[in-house]
Amino acid sequence: MEINQTAYIAAVFFPPDYHGDPCFSYQCGIGVLFIIAIMLVPFYIVITTGIKSVEKINEFPTSDYGKDLQMQLYKALVAQTLIPVLSLFLPFSGVFLLPLFEIDCALLTNSMMFVYALYPLVDPLPIFFFVRNYRNAVANIFCCKCGRENQIHNMAPPPEITSF
Q1: pTM greater than 0.70
Q2: Are 136 and 152 within 8 A, CB to CB?
Q3: Residue by residue, what is the 3-state secondary structure of the chain?
């Protein structure tokens, strides 16, 4: 296949039959089902692991500081799960499924490349928004670079943690 033809490879769900009438291609349908199954496996793993994580966080007796930190990390994990779901899985699922219903998805494919390129930039942001210690450490680094006072708030654990 020539390199200039590779951009046009796609599932043709309704190729013309011998009489020129559109006929459903079961090979393409089965291929899309396999792709959807491959995308559902990570969803299942993330959801079951998330549920078990919350149960374990609530099960073990820890200090308020420990529980607060664990819940901050859990919220960051949920946000970091939603980012690829909303920016990668759903748009790519749409690109695979919309042609099945004969819906043009050219606008979606053009914008998907932009979102796909931004994903590595956006993915680590939930850590800074949800985990107070990381946010304060990064703010401290930028304050020191700008010549401001070294101010770290809520970075040290409470006294009952350091007494162990």
Answers
A1: no
A2: yes
A3: CCHHHHHHCCCCCCCECCCCCECCCHHHHHHHHHHHHHHHHHHHHHHHHHHHHHHHHHHCCCCHHHHHHHHHHHHHHHHHHHHHHHHHHHHHHHHHHHHHHCCCCHHHHHHHHHHHHHHHHHCCHHHHHHCHHHHHHHHHHHHHHCCCCCCCCCCCCCHHHHCC
Query: Hey, what are 147's tokens?
Result: 């010549």
**Count of residues making up the chain:** 164
CA distance 77 to 145: 29
Please tell me the distance from the alpha carbon of residue 158 to that of residue 164, in angstroms, as a whole number. Answer: 11
Model confidence over 136-162: pLDDT tens digits?
Answer: 888 888 876 655 554 444 445 555 544
Helix axes 26-59, 90-97, angle to 10 degrees: 160
Query: Cα 136 to the chain's mean position, in Å?
Result: 24
Q: What is the mean pLDDT of residues 1-5?
A: 65
Nearest CA among 87, 89, 92 for reference residue 10: 92
